[in-house]
Every structure is written in C-alpha cells, then in structure tokens.
Amino acid sequence: MGNRAKLKTRYKYIHFEQRDDTFLAAFHDLPVYLVVTNKENKYLGTIQWFEPWKEFCFFPCTATLWSKECLSDIIDFFEQLEKGVKDDRGKKS
User: Fold this and answer.
1) 48, 50, 47, 20: which is closest to 35 by C-alpha?
2) In a domain, 23, yes or no
C-alpha cells in the first residue's frame, strides 16, 4: 500500500498506530492499525482487513463508547485506506 506514508493518523481525540503483525501478514500484505486515545494512550480497538467482506473493518474493544466525531474520524481513516488499496491495485494492473 504505497499511500501509507501519506495517511493522516492523528485526530482530535484518537490516533491510529500501524502494528507489525507477522501472523496476519501471512494472510495478506495489508497493515493492521490500533485505535488509541490521544489523552491517555488507551487501546480502543483495531482496524484491519476483513477478507470475507474484502474491506477494512473496525473491531472495537468491548465496553467502549463512541462519539459522532470519533466515528467520523474512523470513517475518514477508512477512506484513506481504501484509496491506498485502490491506488496500489491500479499500479499493479
């Protein structure tokens, strides 16, 4: 995913940290991201490729609450990831 370096990863209340996951790398070459709070650096969930749906999905931790603004930030991050996947697929053709 060539667009990775250009991703916006920090938002007002949350940020996304790329995780190197060698187990998942065996199944696909797409990154895994942790969703973390800015204030206390608490882990809130994961964004990763979900093969059955052929798209990135958000896997929140149990007992987490989500504001409209944070959900909007996650959607924005998804859109960046999708654009990067489409750009990479276009380069391979």
Assistant:
1) 47
2) yes
